[in-house]
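Extended Data, panel c. Modelled sequence:
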Amino acid sequence: MIAGQYKRRVLMAPRGHTTRPIPDRLKESLFSILQPWLPGARVLDLCSGSGAMGIEALSRGAAWVTFVDSSSEAIRALKHNLKSLRIESGFAVFSCDVDLALRRLEQAGETFDLVFFDPPYASDLYLTTLPMLGTAAVLKSGAIVMVMHHAKNCLAQTYGRLQRGRELRQGENQLSFYVLD
């Protein structure tokens, strides 16, 4: 379920067990925290799955969202959701792995105010992507990187120029907020 401009719309999820939707209560808490930064923001949605996070950001006033996912099922669901909501502009879709997308975005000179990073809990993407984001030129000064992870996963306090600030835990899900200095 979405709030904002596209409120009460239900999104299609990719088939299979490779994606994990964020619980509604946690998503509402997250967007309540981020609402002051959303209007006009450029957002990067890494491991986007159905696109729920990026679409929610667009619905709440973000100017642009770049969606990245390597799963063809996820990309199919994402494109279906964008089409069903009649979202025709203000986004780009990268069907590739996160590392390749970050390199391409950096080469293109793209920069972002806000990053959603929600990799599969069983993956090791945290180990490579967070250090990459901490040194990448794709983040604007003061950018916020929100990482959703299993509460048992211990993430570092810093990754390059990223410094962890706030944390929010609900059940086995945890959100860690990093800010680029």
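The radius of gyration is 15 Å. This feature is highlighted in the accompanying rendering.
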